[in-house]
Structure formats: structure tokens, C-alpha cells
Amino acid sequence: MKIFSAPFVGGNRRFGALSILIVLAVVAFAVVPAATAVPTPDQDPFYVTSVDPGLQPAGAVLRTRSIALYGLPLPVSAWQVQYRTNDADGVPIAGMATVLVPLLPWFGPGQRPLLSYQIAEDSLDTRCAPSYALRGGWDLGGANTYIDTLFIAEALRRGWAVVTSDYEGPDSRFLDGVDAGRAVLDGIRAARALAPDGVGPASPIGAWGYSGGAFATLWAAQIQPQYAPDIRFAGITSGGVPADWPAMAHGVDGTVQAGLGMLVLIAIAKNEPNSGVPDLLNERGRSALAEDASACGPDFVLKYVNAHVDDFAAVPDVFFHPVFRAATDRQELGGSAPTMPMYLYHSTTDDVIPVAGFTDLVGRYCAQGADLTSVLSVLPGHNGAAIGEAPAAMGFLADRFAGVPVVPGCSGR
Fold first, then answer.
1. Which listed site, 130, 140, 267, 377, has its alpha carbon 20 to 30 Å from 122?
2. What is the architecture of the domain spanning 245-329?
């Protein structure tokens, strides 16, 4: 989970005003929800495709509609874009993305940059999807979307276009790397096809995500050469990177963040019913699986404060059971190294995702020839690094968009 901080400072004052305006408006919206109810995705006909996605190429736009960002009169053009993508099994499905462009023209060289921003969806229902919150839907499950407004606003302040996909798909498959990566890449294709003001074939493309958003971002980067060779990333940034899922789930067990471990357990059992993971649950665990199969991440955190997974499992140390580990191993990053320049950062005192998994992932990427800058942040905790390291991450993307070359190989601080 991430928390709000003050907006970034510096740069063009008009863009600074835009950033502050968006953040303050969304804070007000979060405190006093909009009077006009926005239907959830499951109740919104726009999310239902009227054509067979399989008849279109991956990334093709199926339908669009203009929206008001957060349902508010903000100086941003915004669209919801339904597009064709493929799930992890290769089945064509309809994805959903939100495309944002600041009303001010792009003053930089070349075409307007396009940033693919992955919000930490971390949930098991479409009411938790970023597109619902960004249109003005109010639900606790959208908390990470409201929080990430800070970073999205900064990208818009710089004049960049932003695309953020509901990368868990219509079935809300949290912890499905291939599914998420494909949705991200096809969302970029759809945004390019929409071609909003200043975005075109020559627009430099970047990607960014933190925590659960980093998981989707890096899976997209890993599968890009095979799945989307037409997309050429100028660079990507990711922080608070989820690696070693059993260690992460075990680390929060019995703490105020214990719901995150329960989310991982329930997601794996839901996504892979034939994996053997459901058989590791006791009666209480099976009840949790049934009750929470459509819960959002914040719901888990609130419900399972200080919970112990042993109370829901039929075996001891379920997070390290071979069956559970085999299921999560399929979702671990590091199977191949992304080919674009990367900037990855992680707090050495991260209280949600242990830093050991991050350093191991960096080592695997570097051993495979990645061009990677890694940062072991001294800023305290998961949220501290999310906020404090964001300006440098944004600066890395700005340099890549400007064509500044990187020194090949791996470096760190």
C-alpha cells in the first residue's frame, strides 16, 4: 500500500499547477464521493464487447468513450479504451485501459512521450480495477489508484500521455504474470492506435510501476521481445519489486499487513484450482476462499489484521509447502532479462517485500546481460521508498525520452 505525499516541485509552473490541481481535486473526491453513481464494470455495458476479440489483432481498439477523469472537470483529456488482448492461455479477451493526455501541447522534441503506468491493482474483482476509479467510481478497492494520482499527475505535468491498463483482465487474475504482461503491452498498442493529441508512431514509450504495478511492468518487459516486438521501450522504471512470493507472504504473516499474505494464498487457489493449493486449506481456509474470491486488496488488509495463515491451512508452513512454492515459482520474475534500459529501486527496510528477493532478481537480470541501474534505498519502508525515490525514477524516464544514452551493463547504489 502507498500513501499520499506532497506533489513534486520544480519545472514549468503551469504544469506544476496542473499537478497540484489534480491531486487536490482527487483528495476532495476521495473524501466526498461523487453524487452521481458510476456503475461498476460488471454492471457497465461498455465493458461488454459487441465483437469477437479473436477477429482483431492483438492491441486493436474495440471501442472507446471519452470520460471525465475522476468525474471531475480537470484539464486532462481522458478516454476508456476497450482492446483485444490474450490471456495467459492465448485466448482472445477484451481488455480495458484508460488513456490520459494533458490539454497543454507538447513542447518537447519529437512526438509526445507515452508512459504506460501500472497501478498496483492487487485485487480479485473488477470493482477494484483502475479504470473504474479513474472514471469516478468510488470503492475502497480503488485506494491504490487514488494514491497513484500523485505520480500520474507528475507525468501529465511533464506533458506526457499516460496509459494505464486493467492488467488483471476481466477475470481479475491477480498474480498472473503472463496475463498481466500481455494486457500491458496490448494496452500500449491500443493507446498508440487511439493516437491522442501528440502521440504517434514515433512517440518514445516508457513504463513504470511500483509494488504490484512493478510486477506487471516487469512481466511486460520480459515477454516484450516475443509477444510485442513492434513496441520499443525507451526505458522502464520499477520499485518495491515483488520477488520471492513465499518469503513475502511469510514476512507479513501475523502483522498488520497479514492480509497481503492471505491475498496471495487466495489468489493462487482461485487462479489455479488444479494446482493442489486449494487442498492445502482447512475448512476455515476454504470458507475464506469462497468469501473473499471477489475481494479487493484493501479488504484483505482490513479483514486479516494480525492473522496467521496456519489458522487457514491444513498443513504447517503452507507458504513454504512444495505445492504452494511450485505454483508461485511460475509467477516469479527473472526468467529472462528485459532488453531495454531499466531503473529498479527497493528499500533496504521494506516492511512488505523483503529486499533479499530484489537483490536476487537484480543479480539474475545482470547475469543475463541487462542494462540496469539498481538502487538500494535507505528510505524507510515500502511506502517511504515509493514516495522518496519517485523523482529519480521519473528523471530516468525523462532522460530516456530525451534520447540520453545509458552506460551499458549493471550499476547500483
1. 377
2. Orthogonal Bundle (1.10)
Round to whole Å and give the CA distance between 343 and 267: 28
Between 51 and 240, name the one with better pLDDT: 240
Measured distance CA(48)–CA(96) in Å, rounded: 10
pLDDT for 20-41, tens place per residue?
Answer: 555 555 555 555 554 468 999 9
Tell me which residue of 373, 122, 132, 368 sits closest to 238, measured CA to CA: 373
Nearest alpha-carbon partner for 71 in 146, 127, 121, 141: 146
d(CA 382, CA 386): 6
In the chain, where are the structural domains located?
13-243+335-412, 245-329
From CA 298, how far away is CA 288, in angstroms rounded? 15
Residue 26 confidence (pLDDT): 56
Q: Say if 13-243+335-412 and 245-329 have the same CATH topology.
A: no
Write down the residue that cell numbers 482492446 correspond to.
83
What 3-state class would DSSP assign to 239?
Answer: strand
What's residue 16's pLDDT? 52
Neighbouring CB atoms inside 10 A of 174's CB total: 27
Cell numbers 486493436 correspond to 60
Distance CA 287, CA 60 (A): 40
Cβ(293)–Cβ(266) below 8 Å = yes
For position 37, what pLDDT does the model report? 86
Q: Residue 225: enclosing H or E segment and its boundaries?
A: helix 212-227
Q: Are strands 161-165 and 114-118 parallel, antiparallel or unpaired?
A: parallel
Q: What residues contact residue 278 under an 8 Å CB cut-off, 6+ apart? A: 269, 286, 289
> In CATH, what is the architecture of 13-243+335-412?
3-Layer(aba) Sandwich (3.40)
d(CA 213, CA 40): 22
> In this model, does residue 9 exceed pLDDT 60?
no
Cα torsion through 296, 299, 305, 309, rounded to 10? -50
Best CA proximity match to 211, nearest among 323, 117, 302? 117
